[in-house]
Specification:
Shape: globular
Helix content: 25-40%
Bound molecules: NADP nicotinamide-adenine-dinucleotide phosphate
Largest sheet: 6 strands, parallel
């Protein structure tokens, strides 16, 4: 193996520590940033995510408001809760855990969130602002990928970046962020012709597909930085399961210059970036959008 392993777990821990210093600076001025998380139903994976979000929110010193609603909650009731959270001055960020039950129109719910409290960056206004290159809350997973890339590579300008996947949650915002960093960006997807040849152009490759070990070693330009967003749970013969990414790790690590592992790469960055976005939203909404003498500015 030649690639440097990008330790997302350690980077996320460092980011949370810096955020905690900033939060303490705000709390000393009488402002406690608050994050509301709304979970509808009993999806097991969502329950784990929400538990982790709540715990990490409290660990950095922010207020956490958890709203767990039954699976048969009506869209009207959920929209009413969003309106209450929009008006609550102690709430700086609102996160609606996806997926929502099929009976609820997720797009309508996301659009109901106050754009100033949209810490997931999913409100159409914020999606548009990011596409226009304007300041906007950025979806947490691509923001985490960008932070890791800048940490490893420094200035990204002029690099060829290939993003595999065009979802609204990962692929498209990732491409917008890399473009904002002046990369030359290609977005590949399920209809892309000769995907290995396209990926081989990348100095940066971000895989966000949801297909276990799809990206192979001979697709990678030697020395490229490879970010594996995929989380695929594979069953093992002994009945247990393990997570693997979209990248064939051993093969790609032999060729790449740097690579994120799964788990321990992009995954831990997502919640850390959610807290980062909440702090940023708090600063803007409450008029603290300047460096605090007591704390380092993270954003
Ligand atoms: P998604 O909405 O299912 O999008 C998958 C994308 O991959 C689509 O654009 C699809 O193309 C493309 N694709 C599918 N098969 C392909 C193929 N054979 N060749 C090239 N492209 C192909 O998934 P997502 O929400 O973006 O998530 C992607 C992965 O990231 C999943 O494993 C998910 O669990 C993981 N994830 C991780 C985090 C984290 O915190 N680490 C957060 C979010 C997601 P089309 O558009 O043409 O269908």
């Amino acid at each position: 193996m030649s690639a440097r392993i990008i330790d997302g777990k350690a980077f996320a821990a460092g980011l949370r520590a810096r955020l905690a210093v900033e939060v303490a600076g705000l709390v000393a001025r009488g402002v406690t940033p608050g994050l509301a998380v709304v979970l509808v139903g009993e999806d097991p994976a969502s329950q784990v995510y929400v538990r982790n979000k709540t715990a990490q929110t409290r660990e950095v010193g922010m207020a956490s408001f958890e709203h767990r609603l039954p699976a048969d909650t009506s869209e009207a009731a959920l929209l009413a809760l969003i309106r209450v959270l929009n008006r609550n001055d102690g709430v700086d960020g609102i996160l609606v855990q996806l997926p929502l039950p099929a009976s609820i129109d997720a797009a309508r719910v996301l659009e109901a969130v106050d754009p100033a409290k949209d810490v997931d960056g999913f409100h159409p206004l914020n999606v548009g602002r990011l596409a226009a290159g304007l300041d906007a809350p950025v979806p947490c997973t691509p923001l985490g990928c960008l932070m890791l890339l800048k940490d490893v590579l420094g200035d990204l300008a002029g690099r060829e970046a290939v993003v595999i996947g065009r979802s609204t949650i990962v692929g498209k915002p990732m491409a917008a962020l890399l473009l904002r960093e002046s990369c030359t960006v290609t977005i590949a997807h399920s209809r892309t012709r000769d995907l290995p040849a396209v990926v081989r152009r990348g100095d940066i490759v971000v895989a966000a597909v949801g297909k276990p070990a799809m990206v192979r070693g001979d697709w990678i330009k030697p020395g490229a930085a490879v970010i594996d967003v995929g989380i695929n749970r594979m069953s093992l013969p002994d009945g247990k399961s393990r997570l693997i990414g979209d990248v064939a790790f051993d093969e790609v690590a032999a060729v790449a210059g740097a690579i994120t592992p799964v788990p321990g790469g992009v995954g831990p960055m997502t919640i850390a970036c959610l807290l980062h976005n909440t702090l940023t939203a708090c600063r803007k909404r409450r008029g603290f959008d300047f460096p605090l003498p007591s704390g380092e500015r993270v954003g």
